[in-house]
Amino acid sequence: MNPKEHGEVFVLNDGGEVDLDLGNYERYLNITLTRANNITTGKIYEHVIQRERKGDYLGKTVQVVPHITDAIQDWIERVARIPVDDTGEEPDVCIIELGGTVGDIESMPFIEAMTQLRRRAGKNNFLQIHVSYVPVINGEQKTKPTQQAIKAVRSAGLIPDLIACRCERSLEASAIQKIAHFCQVDLEQVIVVRDMPSIYQVPMLLEQQGVIPLLKEILRLDQLTLSSALVSKGHSIWAEWKTLTATENRFFETVTIVLVGKYVELHDSYLSVIKSLEHSAMRCKRKLDLQWVDSEHLEPATSARDPAKFHKAWHAVCTAAGILVPGGFGQRGTEGMVAAAKWARENHTPYLGICLGMQIAVIEFARNVCGIAGATSEEFGGSPSTSTGISTSAASSGSGSAADSRVIMFMPEVDKASMGATMRLGLRPTLFQPGSEWSRLRGLYADREQRGGGSGTILERHRHRYEVNPAFIERLEKGGLSFVGKDDKGERMEIIELKDHPWFVGVQFHPEYLSRVLDPSRPYLGFVAASAGLLDEVAAEMKRERVVVVNGVKAGVEVTQRASLWS
Ligand code: GLN
């Protein structure tokens, strides 16, 4: 999946690299998914071919219908039973998102499979929501595309129970009537999903239109047996969600963050990063003003070629309250990132480096504080196959060497021959090191440490091939860079932090994959809070919440609720 075409690659606990939509589901439903939750045509065909090779079809001719369509249904039924939260129970409802557009050649076997699944699941066990776009042309809301799309799914055998209409403004009554009439549904089955000031207000929009009673009725949700604890937890989450998101319109003070990256043309390439910043800004009661800077524009070459671009980019960096360098691959634009990290360090502007962003901060520190001239990453050249980022040089084959200036090196255990799914992936522990009690980031992670047994261990998701070269650690530490978090063997550097700086933090993992609306990712929260000048306040608030969890003492209803909601 090319980040410029598909947007971000989302990473799951089990290391599955999946479509970014799975991130939306994890965030909105507060669930944990597995790689099996992401079905692709390739996975299904591979599965069927393997079964055929094993002789499972007893030599019969293998066809799209029924073999592929059966495999899709079996896959869904199997996945629907996997627990997705810490209750460890089988889920009651499974949401299937059939991506793409009706009529796509790729989706035809899937549409046929859904038609069959409707029958397999039986009455009151299947509900279909068709999502359609209602464009406005010359001021008129056009329902024709919706009518055509519904016709197409109907002829494929799929009959929608609800039609969700995406539109900029609320639909006029006449448009709703037209859709209901031509698509042969009742008026109440047409749901208007108009643009909202914030995406977090969409659940309330759906509630106002009576979606919940409709779901209850069609799926007989009232007949489910749920523990009263689960029901009241749901009510509390809903109440807190409403309180938090309803006040969002009333945040007038902004916090300006600049994102210095390489794929800035397509904002979806950083979807989880944006979401984590939004969650954190909401928690800090600030409006997020996110500025995008193409890191190449910060480089001297741009200054010569296009001075206006260069100065505009630097203006954004110099005026931002916080500087974020997110993950990325390859050399292009990295010198601009190094320059942004230098600015942040020298000017005491809060900095957050994610994965590549942490490696960039290490390179900058090595060059400009430790005097390691030309400090660089093995990913950025000097090797025969720099375009792929895969190095075959001798220095990469084992423990790092200080003989060169590669302060970031290829991880020894990573497969060098194959590029697919061979990175260090998924949920892994990071241990805060003895003596790191001063760490501002650690302070914010305290309740997570509690969950991990109180041993200073936190769990975050990873996706990288390169790491800090151990041969340079002593020199970097002498210069004042603290490695406050390492992996469970003490071999991999996971967190860097500067003591004499308001917030200069780099993490080798991707904390954005675990951020939640009501429980923002801690590195992002600390970064946004520091940028807004609120770090001490937020840290104190988190500490109060922790006391509640640890002692079970009621220190205020609001705080008690929030602390227990997502745990
Ligand atoms: N390219 C770097 C690596 O592979 C960083 C990866 C990332 O930012 N996800 O280590």
List the helices and strands and how they pair.
Blueprint: H1 3-6, E1 10-11, E2 17-18, H2 21-29, H3 41-54, H4 64-79, H5 108-121, E3 129-133, E4 136-137, E5 140-141, H6 144-155, E6 162-167, H7 173-183, E7 190-194, H8 202-208, H9 211-219, H10 228-246, E8 254-261, H11 271-283, E9 287-294, H12 300-305, H13 307-319, E10 322-325, H14 334-347, E11 351-354, H15 356-368, E12 376-377, E13 406-410, E14 424-432, H16 440-451, E15 457-464, E16 466-468, H17 473-479, E17 481-486, E18 493-498, E19 504-507, H18 522-531, H19 535-551, H20 557-565
Parallel strand pairs: 3-6, 6-7, 8-9, 8-10, 10-11, 11-19, 12-13
Antiparallel strand pairs: 1-2, 4-5, 13-16, 14-15, 14-17, 17-18, 18-19
Helix pairs in contact: 3-4, 4-5, 11-18, 14-15, 16-18, 16-19, 18-19, 19-20
Bound molecules: glutamine.
Glutamine is lined by residues 327-329, 355-356, 379, 463-466.
Explain this structure.
- This protein is α/β, with parallel strands linked by helices and 567 residues long.
- Among the domains are: 96 residues, Rossmann fold (3-Layer(aba) Sandwich), CATH 3.40.50; 58 residues, no CATH class; 230 residues, Class I glutamine amidotransferase (GATase) domain (Rossmann fold, 3-Layer(aba) Sandwich).
- 40% of the residues lie in helices and 16% in strands.
- The strands form 5 sheets. A 9-stranded mixed beta sheet has the order 9-8-10-11-19-18-17-14-15, sandwiched between helices.
- The longest helix is centred in the middle third of the chain and has 19 residues.
- It is globular and about 70 Å long.
- Bound molecules: glutamine (GLN).
- Glutamine binds next to strand 15.
